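In this section we walk through a basic example: taking a raw amino acid sequence and producing a predicted 3D structure, encoded as discrete structure tokens. The instruction is simple. Fold the sequence below.
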Amino acid sequence: QAQLVESGGGLVQAGGSLRLSCAASGSIFSPSTMGWGRQAPGKQRELVATITDGNSTNFADSVKGRFTISRDNGKNTVLLQMNSLKPEDTAVYYCYAHWAIFARDSWGQGTQVTVSS
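The resulting token sequence is shown next.
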């Protein structure tokens, strides 16, 4: 059973930066896609950034130009660098992984990010 463990959330002022990290374990296959989603109170969870094992990236419009994503395929880790944070970025952020070979998705437990105005 694959596990995703996140770290790096916290409280930051608007305009600040945070970096989230996630490590996937428990599978002999590397995820074909890794990424991050977030869920704010009263809203649906949304994927904000993804990266494939070929390093193709995709970002939600709301974070383009502010967030970057990178991964280490050898370690099955993914990093989300969040810059120029806004109060509307406040949410629980979840690590995401997809294994195309199994057609399976996994989500981490989540880490809180709070941006104060």
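Looking at the output, two observations stand out. The mean pLDDT is 95. The longest strand covers residues 91-99. In the next section we compare this with other chains.
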